Amino acid sequence: MKADMPLRDIPPHREGWTHADWAVSNSGRSHRSRHGNGALNQDASSASILVVDDDPRSLTAVEALLADTGPKLVLAASGEEALRRVEETDFAVILLDVKMQGVDGFTAAKRIRARDRSRYTPIIFVTAGYEDVSAMFKGYEAGAVDFIVKPVVPAVLKSKIAVFVELYQMNDALKREIAERKKVEAYLRTSKQNLRALAARQQSIREDESIRIAREIHDELGQSLTALKMTLTWIVSRLPPDRSAFNGKIDLMFKLIDGTIQTVRKISAGLRPEVLDQLGLVAACSWLARDFQVRTGIRCGIVLPDASVNIDKERAIAVFRVFQELLTNVARHANADKVDVLMEVRDQLLTLEVKDNGKGIAGGKIDSASSLGFLGMRERVLPFGGTVEVVETSDKGTWVRVSIPLK
Prior knowledge:
Blueprint (H helix, E strand, L loop, with lengths): L18 H8 L21 E5 L3 H10 L6 E5 L2 H10 L4 E5 L7 H10 L8 E5 L5 H10 L3 E4 L4 H84 L6 H28 L2 H6 L1 H16 L2 E5 L9 H22 L3 E9 L2 E8 L6 H4 L5 H10 L5 E5 L7 E7 L2
């Protein structure tokens, strides 16, 4: 902004005034802006405007003109100083004079655009009225978003600045909102990880407790029942030959003891089948399928990998419990009379498929929060990077595929 360029609306008898005199005189005049009162939104105090001009009188004039607008004004007397300023502060808008000694406006604008911090800061060029169209195109290529031609109309300048200040405020508010959302997302993500870790820990504790209870039931209660049966046998062997009056009660006692022993074994196996710990996952799944068929009467065809396949204890427990849950769902809900089971290991990936010919399951129920069975199965395999998915079938029935990486 050059001091010898006239400003508009200066009365003829006052043309001798300096720019500063004119700006101060006009600072109290009412110029309607997009905010309605000629001044920028007073909330703009958090925004800053960079004014760049190598003429001190022009800087003083603009400073006086924008003093009541709200945003903080930062003045730079050269292109070099402007480049230093944009490294220190984020600006809502930059007013940049075109003609300056040293680094001119076009060069300064290109360098400002080349820096990450100020890449998107809007630049308004202030140019003389005699600048040709080619110079304006050069300014747009350098990164300008608008031009103001001297002499400057105060209302126009304030309105243009108000637009960019409001955009800056909106962008700043959006950044804060995004930052808050990221904090919330990070908190939720951490909470989810903690809940899953807690669930995994609880499952581990539950499995350990099941092993302890199963062993105590099998060892303590099983041994007591066996001793009771042996004692009853000893007593019966010493009764007088004529014991017909006791035979019915004796037979009933033997049946009760045998039935209780079977119940103890069933409870112990349900808590933790010994075959899983002693012979491994393949043998345990084979036993579970046979037991399922005997208990429910549902035919169960099963294809298993070689028993020598190496599967670690934690994954074996997870797969066995998922298989147990799938068979339980078939018995309770499917109304099926046949189940096909396929377990295979390929390329360090264990896959378990269970398919029944029952009534099927609605797609919405699978992902429902009330479907605790599927939720529990997914949580069991998730720590190993595994998945539980329901495969679409053309016929009736349900087909579930469980996949767990072995590495």
